[in-house]
């Protein structure tokens, strides 16, 4: 099999590992796909475990973020080390996010792609990620609405990528825009609640 196809398949499968679900089941015997927003992401992990296992909630949420970042980032690091092309790396990045958001282990349901998206985009766009993290932290600290902080951080990253890297090595911002579209699509219910003023805060 072509090495690029193997890389794509691994990126998708590893991206699809639902670490939030795994950690909640393993450490708290809680199925987060049945509670809260039913997402496998860290925000839902934190929200659900604060009610069911408050002492473990923050630790499991942080663990989920770390592993959701790493499952996108580590395959890219390895692929770069073995000499795969920049085009292949960008395709792997997109497939990692698709795997997380449409997991083969969850009947093609999944998370919202924020942590995994941050991991893969940060691999290519270091300064843009720092800008996005600053926006996420400030908005999250002031408004305490996770979805809004994530979406505005994503917008900041996309805009700054055009400013700081107008000419990427692959001569296209398409992978960034595809990842952004997927994340925004998965946040559609949150966006609706934000518009209606019904989105819950993370306290």
TrEMBL record:
PANTHER family registered for this protein in UniProt: GLYCEROL-3-PHOSPHATE ACYLTRANSFERASE-RELATED, INNER MEMBRANE PROTEIN YGIH
GO biological process: phospholipid biosynthetic process
Location (main, coarse): membrane
Domain of life: Bacteria
Keywords noted in UniProt: Cell membrane, Lipid biosynthesis, Lipid metabolism, Membrane, Phospholipid biosynthesis, Phospholipid metabolism, Transferase, Transmembrane, Transmembrane helix
Organism field: Campylobacter californiensis
Assigned EC number: 2.3.1.275
Entry protein name: Glycerol-3-phosphate acyltransferase
Family statement drawn from the similarity comment of this UniProt entry: Belongs to the PlsY family.
Subunit annotation: Probably interacts with PlsX.
Reactions the enzyme catalyzes: an acyl phosphate + sn-glycerol 3-phosphate = a 1-acyl-sn-glycero-3-phosphate + phosphate
Membrane disposition: Multi-pass membrane protein
Molecular functions (GO terms): acyl-phosphate glycerol-3-phosphate acyltransferase activity
Subcellular location: Cell membrane
GO CC annotations, alphabetized: plasma membrane
Pathway where this protein functions: Lipid metabolism; phospholipid metabolism
Pfam families: G3P_acyltransf
Lineage of producing organism: Bacteria, Pseudomonadati, Campylobacterota, Epsilonproteobacteria, Campylobacterales
General function of this protein: Catalyzes the transfer of an acyl group from acyl-phosphate (acyl-PO(4)) to glycerol-3-phosphate (G3P) to form lysophosphatidic acid (LPA). This enzyme utilizes acyl-phosphate as fatty acyl donor, but not acyl-CoA or acyl-ACP.
Transmembrane segments: 6-28, 60-82, 88-106, 118-139, 145-164
């Amino acid at each position: 099999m072509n090495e690029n196809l193997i890389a794509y398949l691994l990126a998708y499968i590893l991206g699809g590992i639902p670490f939030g679900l795994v950690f909640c089941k393993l450490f708290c015997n809680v199925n987060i796909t049945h509670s809260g927003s039913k997402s496998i992401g860290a925000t839902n992990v934190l929200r659900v475990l604060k009610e069911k296992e408050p002492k473990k909630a923050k630790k499991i949420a942080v663990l989920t973020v770390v592993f959701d970042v790493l499952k996108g980032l580590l395959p890219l690091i390895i692929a770069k080390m073995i000499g795969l092309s920049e085009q292949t790396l960008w395709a792997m990045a997109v497939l990692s996010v698709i795997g997380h958001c449409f997991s083969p282990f969850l009947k093609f349901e999944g998370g919202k792609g924020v942590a995994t998206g941050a991991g893969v985009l940060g691999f290519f766009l270091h300064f843009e990620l720092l800008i996005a993290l600053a926006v996420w932290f400030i908005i999250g600290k002031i408004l305490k609405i996770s979805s809004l902080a994530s979406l505005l951080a994503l917008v900041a990253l996309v805009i700054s990528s055009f400013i700081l890297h107008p000419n990427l090595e692959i001569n296209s911002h398409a992978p960034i825009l595809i990842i952004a579209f997927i994340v925004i699509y998965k946040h559609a219910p949150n966006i609706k609640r934000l518009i209606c003023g019904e989105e819950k805060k993370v306290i």
